[in-house]
């Protein structure tokens, strides 16, 4: 036997022995429970109480860390909070009462449901029920089907998608914050049998605000179309000692919705508009105030961004679910004859244009029906502030939160982190609205506008303009004609990506950068729909260099 043959034989024997050992270990006893994997974003999470801390300027809670009977719902309105919380009360009554009146008259918001019925649907906090119509009536039904357990196979076609969207909600829970702020729920009508009084039997100092609000309750409802029951659930709010601020449902809508938007950037503006509708539906039902919804959005944004900006979590958890969802929708579209690619299917079903997400209800805040992307962005923007007056300093410099750039990674995959932060800075709303002062910038983000912006870069890669458009896209300014004998290479000192250290456009404060706040539709660039990371581009570039292509020639080719 040759030496080479003996080596191979011994190696094969070692492999066989190892396989036998592994097999023996596998059957040595009951399997150990798999540990929950950890990711970099599991550390350094923002403090929810601190993010929402401004609320204590308006309501001073009695400390209630244990949710004890003697302390629950106790606290006092501050002098500074009287006018703001009065507005909070009035908006709640206005939005709730109009939805109840529309329900009685049978006014449908989408051709199928009234606004109050939609609120009962959203109260279930089920991603399938809330987000299906963000994809339009055709593709939305495919999404619904994929999220339902097949009664025969006992599996979901979109199991990874389902697990991801539901798992995201636990990243930044708000239960402890609810107990900390200890703000009582909106009152319910005593005439309908509810003995709960917002003044907690006169023990809270409400500074003259009414202890009872004229809210109208929804009744339990059965959806004949879907065959699902939707209980109103009011009885669980008080005995369960579930406080009002911030809204946990709204947090969940934004956490899962923004994750879904990252998976399907073509539908990002529709998805976040639907998340905003879900938050508003908590007011429709009389379960929350507008400030509760704003607080829930802040936490939901921070929660989604923390995960989506984590490269390891994105590659191991988000991208597999994204591939599953996109492949599934493509297969359904091909089978139905709408095209061979996802982009063709979206275009032929008109899912992001005339055949997409819409609803016809209006109220004191969202004043026009949602019929297209532009109106969806407008409605979303109105619900960022709920019409409150600014309570802090207006005109402050942009404040882009840490990790927020992760929310744009698939909408603008060809931009780097600093460029994405520049887009967020250019599209954010003004400073000074309620909850802004402690939110680290989350309150100011206008993600619907950011998701739908046309971004212009100069030849150095600086973000020089962000403007409203009909689709999210990136364009580059034409290179200037060099003067005779001139050199058009980049000048020393240019910040890569064209942004300053805080992510804002790299121009001095007050300079005319050409940045225009605003935004509109679509899903950016050729890579946006795939979620491909720029690391792939880097690998390709290295391969090209290995083949002998110079950096200078590569730079010219990519202009």
Textual characterization of the structure:
This protein is 41% helix and 5% strand. The protein is mainly α and 559 residues long. It folds into three domains: 91-181 and 221-387, Vanadium-containing Chloroperoxidase, domain 1 (Up-down Bundle), CATH 1.20.144; 407-482 and 495-528, no CATH class; 531-559, no CATH class. The protein has a three-stranded mixed β-sheet with strand order 6-5-7, with helices on one face. β3 (221-223) and β4 (228-230) form a beta hairpin. α9 (248-263) runs antiparallel to α10 (268-284). The longest helix has 25 residues, at 311-335. Mean pLDDT is 83; it is low at 1-33 and 486-559.
Mean pLDDT: 83
Classify the fold: give the CATH topology of the largest domain: Vanadium-containing Chloroperoxidase, domain 1
- Strand content is under 5%
Instruction: Give the class-level CATH name of the largest domain.
Output: Mainly Alpha
Number of helices: 18
Shape: globular
Rounded Rg: 27 Å
The CATH architecture of the largest domain would be Up-down Bundle
Instruction: State the domain count.
Output: 3
Q: Name the helicity range.
A: 40-55%
Keywords:
3 domains, globular, mainly alpha, two-stranded antiparallel sheet, disordered N terminus, 41% helix, 3-stranded mixed β-sheet, Vanadium-containing Chloroperoxidase, domain 1
Topology, pairings included?
Blueprint: H1 3-26, H2 48-51, E1 59-61, E2 75-77, H3 82-105, H4 115-123, H5 127-131, H6 136-147, H7 159-168, H8 175-181, E3 221-223, E4 228-230, H9 248-263, H10 268-284, H11 290-308, H12 311-335, H13 342-349, H14 373-385, H15 417-427, H16 447-450, E5 453-457, E6 463-468, E7 473-476, H17 534-546, H18 551-557
Parallel strand pairs: 5-7
Antiparallel strand pairs: 1-2, 3-4, 5-6
Helix pairs in contact: 4-10, 6-12, 7-9, 7-12, 9-10, 9-11, 9-12, 10-11, 10-14
């Amino acid at each position: 036997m040759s030496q080479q043959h003996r080596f191979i034989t011994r190696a094969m024997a070692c492999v066989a022995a190892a396989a036998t050992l592994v097999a023996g270990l596998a059957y040595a006893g009951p399997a150990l429970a798999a540990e929950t994997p950890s990711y970099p974003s599991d550390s350094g999470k923002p403090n929810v109480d601190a993010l929402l801390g401004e609320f204590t300027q308006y309501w001073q809670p009695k400390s209630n860390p244990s949710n004890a009977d003697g302390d629950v719902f106790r606290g006092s309105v501050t002098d500074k909070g009287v006018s703001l919380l009065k507005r909070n009360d009035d908006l709640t009554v206005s939005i709730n009462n109009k939805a109840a009146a529309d329900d009685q008259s049978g006014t449908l918001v989408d051709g199928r449901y009234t606004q109050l019925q939609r609120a009962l649907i959203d109260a279930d906090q089920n991603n399938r029920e809330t987000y299906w119509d963000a994809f339009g009536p055709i593709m939305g039904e495919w999404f619904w089907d994929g999220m339902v357990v097949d009664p025969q196979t006992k599996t979901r076609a979109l199991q990874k998608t389902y697990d991801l969207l539901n798992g995201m909600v636990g990243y930044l829970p708000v239960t402890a914050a609810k107990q900390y702020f200890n703000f009582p729920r909106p009152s319910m009508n005593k005439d309908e049998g509810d003995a709960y009084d917002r003044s907690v039997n006169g023990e809270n100092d409400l500074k003259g605000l009414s202890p009872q609000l004229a809210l109208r309750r929804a009744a339990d409802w059965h959806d004949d179309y879907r065959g699902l029951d939707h209980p109103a659930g009011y009885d669980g709010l008080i005995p369960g000692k579930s406080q009002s601020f911030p809204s946990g449902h709204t947090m969940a809508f934004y956490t899962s919705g923004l994750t879904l938007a990252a998976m399907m950037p073509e539908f990002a503006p529709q998805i976040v508009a639907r998340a905003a509708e879900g938050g508003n539906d908590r007011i429709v039902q009389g379960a929350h105030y507008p400030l509760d919804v704003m607080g829930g959005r802040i936490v939901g944004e921070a929660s989604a961004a923390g995960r989506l900006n984590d490269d390891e979590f994105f590659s191991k958890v988000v991208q597999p679910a994204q591939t599953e969802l996109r492949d599934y929708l493509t297969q359904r579209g091909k089978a139905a004859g709408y095209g061979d690619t996802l982009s063709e299917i979206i275009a032929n079903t008109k899912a992001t244009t005339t055949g997409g997400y819409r609803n016809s209800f209006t109220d004191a805040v969202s004043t026009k029906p949602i019929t297209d992307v532009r109106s969806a962005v407008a409605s979303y923007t109105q619900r960022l502030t709920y019409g409150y007056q600014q309570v802090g300093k207006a005109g402050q410099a942009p404040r882009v939160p840490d990790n927020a750039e992760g929310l744009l990674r698939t909408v603008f995959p060809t931009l780097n982190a600093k460029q994405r932060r520049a887009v967020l800075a250019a599209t954010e709303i003004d400073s000074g609205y309620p909850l802004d002062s402690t939110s680290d910038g989350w309150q100011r983000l206008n993600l619907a506008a950011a998701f739908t912006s046309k971004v212009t870069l100069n030849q150095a890669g600086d973000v020089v303009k962000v403007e409203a458009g009909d689709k999210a896209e990136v364009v580059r300014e034409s290179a200037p004609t060099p003067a005779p004998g001139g050199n058009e290479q980049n000048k020393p000192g240019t910040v890569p990506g064209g942004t300053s250290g805080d992510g804002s456009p790299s121009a001095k404060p007050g300079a005319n950068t050409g940045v225009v706040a605003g935004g509109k539709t679509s899903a950016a660039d050729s890579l946006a729909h795939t979620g491909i990371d720029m690391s792939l581009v880097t690998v390709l570039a290295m391969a090209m260099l290995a083949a002998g292509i110079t950096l200078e020639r590569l730079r010219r080719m990519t202009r």
